[in-house]
Write a structure and sequence with these properties.
This protein is α+β, with helices and mostly antiparallel strands. It is built from four helices and five strands, in the order ααββαβαββ. The chain starts with a helix and ends with a strand.
């Protein structure tokens, strides 16, 4: 291949001609942890159990992983949208600036998707979590505070761990 960008990276062991290792056709990762996310069809989140029925299959084995914040979106009728943003490498203790920045970015996603009356479904995910722990409750407070300041509707916040899960804010 005579692509200038490719020529700069001749140390690649090509999986496919013209793409770096681990990238399939089109340059998308085909072997990462999120390439098999099951996106359930849009369903209405009418009660807390609906939130867990939606989140648990979506998060799957990553429930046993390190601290992460999973961000999902709903429309004005609380029907799930086919967009999920897992954010890894989150600190155990939230700080207001980080929570504010995350919520502001999520607000912009809602605006970009033309869902101004939409809302967020958030999951604080960590291996030992899944209940009303100190870490989870601190994140609930920080995320709700940030959402209130950014005028973003939060439909639910859940705590998800390897062995348990609970909706903390409905």
């Amino acid at each position: 291949m005579t692509n200038a960008a490719y020529d700069d990276w001749q140390d690649w062991d090509d999986d496919e001609p013209g793409w770096p290792p681990g990238l399939g056709a089109g340059g998308l990762e085909d072997d990462g942890p999120d390439d098999d996310l099951p996106m359930p069809p849009g369903g209405r989140l009418a009660e807390p159990d609906d939130v867990l029925d939606f989140l648990l299959p979506l998060i799957g084995p990553e429930r046993a992983g390190p601290m992460a914040l999973w961000c999902c979106f709903v429309d004005g009728d609380d029907v799930t949208l086919p967009l999920v943003l897992p954010i890894s490498d989150m600190p155990m203790r939230p700080d207001r600036e980080l929570a504010t920045n995350v919520v502001e970015q999520l607000r912009m996603v809602l605006e970009h998707q033309l869902v101004p009356d939409g809302g967020l479904v958030l999951a604080v995910v960590r291996r030992a979590g899944g209940d009303r722990g100190e870490v989870e409750l601190a994140w609930v407070r920080a995320l709700q505070h940030a959402a209130d300041r950014a005028d973003v509707r939060v439909r639910a916040i859940a705590a998800v761990g390897r062995d348990r899960a609970r909706v903390l804010r409905w």
